[in-house]
Amino acid sequence: MPSSHYFHNLKSSAFLLSNRLNSISSIIQYSRKFDDPSLTYLAVNYLDRFLSSEDIPQSKPWILKLISLSCVSLSAKMRKPNISVHDLPVEGEMFDVQMIERMENVILGALKWRMRSITPFSFFDFFLSLFDLKEDHLVVLKHSLKSQATDLTFNLQHDIKFLEFKPSVIAGATLLFVSSELCPIQFQCFSNGICQCTYVNKDELMECYKAIQERDIVEENEVSTETAVNVLDQQFSSSYEEESDKSITIITASSPKRRKTCTRRC
């Protein structure tokens, strides 16, 4: 996890928050070639841990891209041992192999060579084992719960409020949220199973779960607003086209009279 003060620094510094968002965009761009969401997630994890311990000079904005590219390189090497710096999508960039390798060493030093990051994905199978899903038709449900919780975890990484939660708490909260959507009848049973686990802080778990709920409500409202705007745009466009058609018809019908009038005046 990033250092404890990192989350508060992001909240109070527009510059640091902007750096993070730009760097995540670069990581997504650079890692697209590998088609591995876990690789991208790990690279962002390295980025957050690095930014939480190092100050980035404002006079060198290009360095963020180099850091992002180096995080992807390190993540790729952890996920795919046969990958080298030469496999990175650096075409059109100002960075050569030596620059990337030097930055990799800087990042490795800052992270104290602790590259096997603990992520929420490490806890999914453990929490799912607490659910009574042994029958054949429930095995499919178990797979769906894990798949959707995984997708949700990828999305949560962009939101800084979830940086303050431990990976185990995020794993439990995402599974709870997904279970409330997929199987609301069994939700209470799942909730009891996770909350009774001695390794999980129940208060932190429910706080994270509520944060996911609030985030979901905000996204739904944004989608509803966008849909309403699109509908209004379509209605306006249709009305405008109808009015335009009427105007053309009127002009077309009246144009001979105008030509007659003009002829008489001449």
From TrEMBL:
Residue ranges of domain Cyclin C-terminal in the record: 118-254
InterPro entries for this protein: Cyclin (IPR039361), Cyclin-like_dom (IPR013763), Cyclin-like_sf (IPR036915), Cyclin_C-dom (IPR004367), Cyclin_N (IPR006671)
Every Cyclin-like domain range: 25-109
GO biological process terms held by the UniProt record: cell division
Translocase listed as a keyword: no
Alphabetized PANTHER family for the sequence: CYCLINS
Family designation: Belongs to the cyclin family. Cyclin D subfamily.
Protein name per Swiss-Prot or TrEMBL: Cyclin-like domain-containing protein
Record organism: Arabis alpina
